[in-house]
């Protein structure tokens, strides 16, 4: 039952009780010669026996409705404040509630919002320091190893697949002049398999090479990654990337989340379309990756996938949230939201 409904019910009950008490006091102070006088005495042409309870109940409903609507407004005020806090927005009480208890709650919510903002600021600063320290010690070794693997795969397996593809194409072109038979169909299937292997090898090489932004901004890194990807794989790739400054730690974590998500799309989704969005709205940085692949069970992936856990941890490290929505045979949408921190405080427009 809503707050307004409860107030009305309580007020009606109280009104009935007051009506009974008033009637008892009235009959005690002004004794009745007979009970029939309750019906013979009139007030505003209404018998006293009906006027007292009817008036009491009507006043109870009116007062209960006013009280209920008032408290419902106060509760919604608190609910909206908590919702803003949950979304990572800064809560600023420009008008304090008139009730002392609600003022206390508002003050505690505002303090909680400041604490969350401080934690987000601290998390982002620690993430930045952690990235700078780690990159100075291990990034060079990781890049060298990845480049070595990519170079060996490109020089050996990738070149062999390319040669095999060219040979199969030449064989199939010569066989097209003769009558198509079982062997010709088999050779075409082999050619398609080699072509698919080439695509997967290109995706793997793309995943192995760039692992850090280095001296590029997040926007530049995203565009460079997607342009190279569109040249390597047969997939419709679209992106919208807005320009705005970010801390190095936030940029690195968002870029690595994007890399992990694209890697999963290439390996598992069988998608024909990929869309990437990076925008800044309402003091929030929003990065969204959408594909039209086969989808997966999100809960099972969270429990058993290291990549999914890693992406969630990276989002939390910069004070953000990560949400994944996936529908079987419809596609997957991954969205990261990170609160904006400017000059050591949550941005306040």
How is this structure best described in words?
There is one protein chain. This protein has helices at 3-29, 37-40, 48-86, 100-175, 182-208, 218-232, 248-269, 298-304, 306-317, and strands spanning 42-43, 46-47, 236-241, 273-281, 284-291, 321-327, 331-339, 341-342, 345-346. It has 349 residues and is an alpha+beta fold. It has 2 domains: 3-86; 118-346, Heat Shock Protein 90, CATH 3.30.565.10. Strands 3-4-5-7-6 form a 5-stranded mixed β-sheet. A hairpin with a 2-residue loop joins strand 1 and strand 2. Helix 5 packs antiparallel against helix 7 (248-269). The longest helix has 76 residues, at 100-175. The two termini are 38 Å apart. 19% of the residues are buried. Residues 344-349 have low confidence and may be disordered.
CATH architecture classification of the largest domain: 2-Layer Sandwich
Class of secondary structure makeup = alpha+beta
> Major sheet: size, sense and barrel closure?
5 strands, mixed
Helix content: 55-70%
Count of beta strands? 9
Fraction in beta strands: 5-15%
**Overall mean pLDDT score?**
76
Instruction: Name the CATH class of the largest domain.
Output: Alpha Beta
In the CATH hierarchy, what is the superfamily of the largest domain?
A: Histidine kinase-like ATPase, C-terminal domain
Return the CATH topology of the largest domain: Heat Shock Protein 90
What is the count of helical runs?
9
H/E series:
HHEEHHHHEHEEHHEEEE
Please, how many domains? 2
Please give the alpha-carbon distance between the first and last residues. Answer: 38 Å
Sum up the overall morphology in one term. elongated
Low-confidence stretches: 344-349
| Radius of gyration from CA coordinates | 35 Å
